[in-house]
Design brief:
The longest helix has 38 residues. The mean pLDDT is 86. This protein has 473 residues and is mainly α. It has two domains: 179 residues, no CATH class; 286 residues, no CATH class. Helix content is 71%, strand content 0%.
């Protein structure tokens, strides 16, 4: 059941009607049932995985609180981590690990036949696994008391607006909201629906139309020139942003309609002036999770400069692997780690040089923004390319060191109005939310804009309902 489908519109409408008709006492139960119904539309048999993870971490949380020794608490935490990460490894990384092992041993002349495990990747497993892991780790750290109500904890794990692709919530933020009494508030509901509409517009009008061009070019990079591949790479940068931020807007907006506040997931990432700043603005719920539960756990920046760089590399390589079981994602994560370390190393020198040369601060900011954006686009090549060889072809053609067709191919892939709509999105991101401005306008202007957005979705949206990119993770 995709957010960009009529099925979800009907489902969400029914849930909202029942939610506000019921008393507060029964609402958690409605949302829990709705969340499982929502998830089971993807693959009903995998609902037991969420239930198993929920049961394990609920028991682990209560057991850690009751444990009399730190050693026992640590043992319980390790059991929880082992179960959840083991489940994630089995369903997501088993084939990648054994195939890579077989290839490595084969290079050494050792024959190894990897065991086959024909299973589908459960949708959302990377997201809800990280969400439950943060719960048990917070309890072990003494930062959170365990939830006593099993049903409400189960709802925290499965809350349908953010179940499939985040934002990855923290128990400290979401669990207390489940006990909050929510009255129907027209302004809040209108704001939530407005955010959902804007997210849907970004997804079906901008991202899905860009994907037609990007898929055609990246699907056969050997047939395209460096100019075409470069343009497709820029197009993908905006496709993935509008796709994922569009999903996040719909998720946050849907939760807002129901009276819940989810964490913000994007903050104008392509206006960042460094890779460090980019990761404070891009997929915030994941980057903050990696910082709080991985980077800090392996030492953070507490043990000297070189160990800080090592910890950055560990964090980003594993962050790349979180996105997918392939060497391209490992390379993508490695690039992020290298660029983060390089950004830290060179920042004092860059600041010193810009002051010594007397370059205006506005010019410095613009240049840094431009460089950061292009470094991010370079790394997106490994993220999007189907194979490492394809990525090398794309980079070689763009750099002009690998021969290929001449000229630039745009064909008729619905790019014309995307090129006009992208500046609208960029201006909206750069100068603040257009939604806040719109909310202050007279009702005729507001509703005129809403109808225009709806017509844009219906008339300009790509045909058919396509998956969000991050659903594959």
């Amino acid at each position: 059941m995709l957010f960009n489908s009529l099925d979800f519109a009907f489902f969400f409408g029914v849930v909202c009607a029942l939610y506000f008709a019921l008393g507060q006492r029964w609402r958690w139960m409605l949302l829990l049932v709705a969340s499982y119904v929502f998830y089971m539309q993807w693959n009903a048999s995998y609902a037991f995985l969420i239930l198993a993870s929920t049961c394990v971490d609920y028991v682990a949380g209560r057991a850690m609180a009751a444990a009399e020794s730190r050693r026992r608490q640590t043992g319980i935490l390790l059991g929880s981590l082992g179960f959840n990460l083991g489940m994630l490894f089995t369903f997501k990384y088993w084939s990648f690990f054994h195939t890579s092992l077989a290839e490595g041993l084969g290079a050494l002349g050792v024959s190894y036949a990897p065991p086959e495990l024909n299973v589908l990747l459960p949708v959302g497993i990377s997201f809800y696994t990280f969400q439950t892991l943060s719960y048990t780790i917070d309890i072990w750290r003494g930062e959170l008391k365990p939830e006593r109500h099993f049903g409400k904890f189960a709802l925290f794990v499965t809350f349908f607006p953010q179940l499939i692709a985040g934002p990855i919530e923290r128990a400290k933020h979401l669990l207390p909201q489940l006990d909050r009494e929510v009255a129907f508030d027209f302004e809040r509901v209108q704001s939530g629906l407005q955010l959902m509409g804007w997210g849907l517009f970004k997804k079906v009008v901008i991202a899905d139309n860009l994907s037609v061009y990007v898929d055609a070019v990246y699907g056969n990079p050997q047939a395209h020139s460096g100019w075409t591949l470069g343009f497709a790479t820029y197009a993908f940068a905006f496709q993935i942003y509008c796709d994922f931020s569009g999903y996040s807007d719909i998720a946050i907006g849907a939760a807002k309609v129901l009276g819940f506040d989810l964490m913000k997931n994007f903050e104008r990432p392509y206006f960042s002036q460094s890779i460090t700043e980019f990761w404070r603005r891009w997929h915030i719920s994941l980057s903050s999770w990696l910082r709080d539960y991985l980077y800090i756990s392996v030492g953070g920046n507490r043990r000297g400069r070189w160990k800080t760089y090592r910890n950055l590399m560990i964090t980003m390589v594993l962050g790349g692997l979180w996105h997918g079981a392939s060497w391209n994602f490992v390379i993508w994560g490695t690039l992020q780690g290298v660029m983060l370390a390089a950004s830290r190393v060179t920042l004092p020198w860059r600041d010193k040089m810009s002051k010594r040369l007397g370059i205006p601060s506005l010019a410095v900011s613009g240049w840094r923004m431009l460089v950061t954006f292009h470094l991010v686009c370079l790394s997106w090549i490994f993220f999007r390319a189907a194979t490492f060889d394809d990525a090398m072809v794309i980079i070689g053609r763009i750099a002009g060191v690998m021969p290929g067709p001449e000229g630039m191919t745009l064909t008729d892939y619905n790019l014309v109005y995307c090129l006009f709509l992208l500046p609208v999105q960029i201006v909206q991101e750069r100068f603040g939310s257009a939604r806040n401005w719109l909310a202050a306008q007279p009702i005729l202007i507001r509703w005129g804009a809403y109808w225009a957005m709806l017509l844009g979705i219906l008339l300009l949206g790509a045909e058919g309902s396509s998956n969000f990119i991050y659903f594959q993770f």
